[in-house]
Specification:
The strands form two sheets. A four-stranded antiparallel β-sheet has the order 1-2-3-4, with no helix packed on it. A three-stranded antiparallel β-sheet has the order 5-6-7, with no helix packed on it. It is rod-shaped, with a radius of gyration of 42 Å. With 283 residues, it is mainly β. Strand 2 and strand 3 form a beta hairpin. The protein has a domain of 52 residues. Helix content is 7%, strand content 13%. The N and C termini lie far apart (149 Å).
Length: 283
């Protein structure tokens, strides 16, 4: 039959010596199918263990690290028991001011996380908001899919570093350009080695010169056959020497030059055979 115990003041149930300090040796057991506490429940011990298979909490938010009064100095989070494996952990790293997820050899009695092996976090393949985390496959598709620009914001020391065995590709459009509103900016590509496997170098603008310039007192050196593939028309004479080929004439070479400091008209380099014949003829 139902029974109600009423008291007009506090009601204390004592079980064993040392109850005042929480170190008593006896146990108070409530043996019932359901135990309901209509009022607030405060547990002042050092540990609370819940052995139920399902825990349901009505509160919208759960607070950990209660009674912390220091500003941003204590780690706190949730441990996930993984049996004989290292615990999984989701926590706020106060020292670095960031959330971390991974596994650790520490347990929930720790007050500071001193070791963690960072784990993987899986997110939706395609983010639906600019502030959503993006998956690796989504980022890879945007970078390599074309039609997207890659911007580097910073001072003049901003750079791209490619590790050994990796490749940085510049593709799309007719050229590579960069612009700035405050200073003339430029894009420098420094290979730090000889160019290899280059079959053709050409300009992309009509009537544009192609300039090869050696550094300092160095020279542009051609270590193989230099071929003029097409007959040229006579260029305009200037104060620099222009070398070109046309149909051979009296010089017998077809290799011409023009320089306004030498003559306003072109001259043909003479072959050894023609020079010998001319020498003989002139005696």
């Amino acid at each position: 039959m139902a029974k109600t115990l009423r008291t007009s003041g506090d009601y204390t149930v004592k079980a064993g010596a040392g109850y005042d300090s929480g170190s008593g040796t006896n146990t108070i057991r409530l043996d019932a199918r359901y135990v309901r506490i209509p009022g607030d429940l405060t547990v002042d011990g050092t540990q609370t263990v819940v052995n139920s298979q399902t825990l349901t909490v009505e509160d919208q938010f759960i607070e950990t690290n209660r009674n912390n009064s220091t500003a941003g100095t204590e780690d706190s989070g949730i441990f996930f028991n993984q049996g004989s494996s290292n615990h999984a952990l989701l926590y706020y790293d106060a020292g670095n001011g960031e959330f971390q997820i991974g596994t650790t050899t520490q347990d929930a009695s720790a007050t500071t996380i001193s070791n963690i092996t960072l784990g993987q976090l899986k997110v939706a393949t395609t983010p639906s908001d600019n502030n959503h985390a993006a998956s690796k496959s989504y980022v890879d598709a945007q970078v390599s899919g074309g039609g997207y620009s890659l911007f580097f914001n910073g001072d003049d020391s901003t750079s791209i570093t490619a590790s050994a065995g990796t490749t940085v590709y510049f593709s799309g459009g007719d050229n590579i350009t960069t612009s700035a509103t405050e200073e003339p900016d430029q894009l420098n590509i420094n290979l730090n080695r000889d160019l290899q496997g280059i079959d053709t170098i050409s300009t992309d603008r009509s009537n544009q010169d192609l300039t090869l310039t050696a550094n300092g007192t160095g020279s542009v050196v051609i270590e193989d056959v230099l071929t003029f593939s097409g007959a040229a028309s006579t260029p305009t004479a200037t104060t620099v020497t222009k070398l070109y080929n046309k149909t051979p004439a009296g010089g017998g070479t077809g290799l011409y030059f023009i320089n306004s400091q030498v003559s306003a008209t072109e001259g043909e380099l003479i072959s050894k055979k023609k020079a010998t014949a001319l020498a003989i003829a002139l005696g």
